[in-house]
Write a structure and sequence with these properties.
The protein has 138 residues and is mainly β. Helices cover 9% and strands 33% of the residues. The protein has two helices and eleven strands.
């Protein structure tokens, strides 16, 4: 279970006062595997601009702030996590930075840096891994 917290303000630094809504966007099994998560909505009212949820089940979720809705993945964490990194992870690259991002066109699950010797020692390279091979240290 994970607590999500975040300080919310407008551009002038005025604390956000409207409710923030969390829900699962799909029916799914809970992280413990002993119950089903429904799409019921939970609302949290900021206190001095800070929202703090109760423990939320890890997995896919949706958060609504004002009229904007974002799909997030709630991680498993024993300590509270900030909301912004969860939202940012699911956002598309900003239009002015499109050339600075690598977009996965499909088939790549991870990127791994290996030395030339480490790569040569692989008996069967993972077809879903993009390898960055660097020279062996001297």
């Amino acid at each position: 279970m994970t607590v999500i917290t975040e300080t919310l303000t407008d551009l002038a630094g005025t604390p956000h006062t409207d409710e923030v809504f969390f829900s699962s966007y799909i029916l799914r099994e809970n992280d413990d595997g002993d119950a089903m998560i429904t799409t019921s909505v939970r609302s949290y009212t900021p206190v001095n601009g800070v929202i703090t949820t109760e423990d939320l089940d890890p997995g896919p979720a949706r958060v609504r702030i004002g009229m904007d809705t974002y799909n997030i993945t709630i991680p498993e964490s024993a300590t509270p996590v900030r909301l912004w990194p969860l939202i940012e992870t699911g956002l598309p690259a900003p239009p002015t930075l499109v050339g600075a991002y690598v977009v996965n066109g499909g088939g790549i699950a991870r990127v791994q840096k290996l030395t030339e010797s480490e790569y040569a020692a692989l008996t069967l390279p993972d077809p879903e891994t993009e390898y960055s091979v660097v020279p062996d240290p001297e």
